[in-house]
Amino acid sequence: MRICLLLSMTLLAGCATVQPWEKGHLAKPIMAFDPDPLTARQHKQIYTSKEAASGGQGVGTGGCGCN
Amino acid sequence: MQLTPSPQADHANSHPLGLLAAAAMALMPATAQAVAPPDGTSVTVSYLSYQDYDAQRDRMQVHAPQLHLRTALGERFGLEMAATVETMSGASPEFHNALSGASGKGIADRRRAADAKLSHYFDRVVLGLGLAYSDEDDYRSRGAGLDVQWLSEDQNTTLVAGLGSSSDHISATDRPLIQQRRHGKEAMLGLTQVLSPVAIVQSNLTYSRGHGYFSDSYKALDRRPDSRHQLAWLTRYRHYLPALQAAVHLDYRYYRDSWGVRAHSLETSWYQPVGERWLLQPSLRYHSQGAARFYSDRFPPARFNTLYSADSRLGALGAVTVGLKASWHYSAQTTVALQAEHYQQRASWHAGGQGSTAMMPFKANWLSLGLGHRFE
User: Fold this and answer.
1) What radius of gyration do chain A's Cα atoms show?
2) What percentage of chain B reaches a pLDDT higher than 90?
3) Out of B180, B196, B261, B318, which residue is the most buried by the measure of CB atoms under 10 Å away?
4) In the predicted model, is pLDDT for residue B84 greater than 90?
5) pLDDT at B1 over 50
6) Which of A32, A42, A61 sits opposite B145 (nearest CB)?
7) Where are the domains of chain B?
8) Contact, B251 vs B235, CB < 8 A?
9) In angstroms, rounded to a whole number, what is the distance separating the alpha carbons of residues B117 and B144?
10) Superfamily holding B11-375
């Protein structure tokens, strides 16, 4: 029940239109999905070479001989 | 990439943390202007030092200078590029924790990798073409991807669809007769949704099908399927806390593949500005994976001529990473960042019970020092 309520609230929030002038916080660099592209590449390389799972970041990013 | 058009340029000058915000732009993508090419040119150079080890000895060591560039090409195009040269040395297990270097056969290799992405910006559509290249003594990979992003009229929703392919050539430095190939195709669908003035979420589904040689020729008796289908579902949430002027990042990835691996990866970071010039970023990641069907804790295998691997990376395990990054903004254009992370992998940390018993705890530390500058 709580999960349904939480989900509904999230969906409702998702439907609410946020106006352009309300997006100042969302535009901050620290709110980016990939704030540091080099760190993202490092993590992808390290985790791909040490774990069995990979992917999700995009397409055409190529592979390596690390796994 | 994220399409979140917003008025933001004047923030840097009017906000008390203006210097910090402006300087941060030197190291970070101009996500707020994704419907237009990047503002100016930003260049980041960094140096990565990596060492992993177990209870008995050091394993692999990696040193890697890295370069990243993002720039506008006219009013409608943007270019992003990255390059690195990794120098690797040490020893890697032949099976479970038995190191090849222990018998005097160490590993030394150099990997050169580069990727580039050209984006064409229309009014509410962005077309991206990416290329990737990675070359080692015994492995060469080429990848290409094409993606399209659509931004809704109210600019709160972005859809992304992408297709990619890769072609890899595999050899072995100690066995010249091994010359193998692997090909892959990828498809991606994604949605980015503004939830409120302080919250945004992105969910991407990636499916890939690979065919060819997947065995590891450096692992003893390693014999894997000649195809691998992988599904990764990555959801990322960003929340801003105005009272603290901080941002919380929460990422979760569900993964499954045709080898029987099921994995969950959960990561969180806190971005906390301190004063006008500092940004502190503690982070925590937990990963848990089930074993591939053909993985075995036993060596040698009970039967030969069947699929088999004693590569611990395909076993059931859990892993934790803790990290801290500190960025110092010398000026509005220049930033220096130091990042340290510690990683541990253990069978007992596997979610839902004991993992693969043949695996010993494994650890790694890495440190990177970066310098970013934005040219106006």
Assistant:
1) 18
2) 77
3) B261
4) yes
5) no
6) A61
7) 11-375
8) yes
9) 9
10) monomeric porin ompg (2.40.160.40)
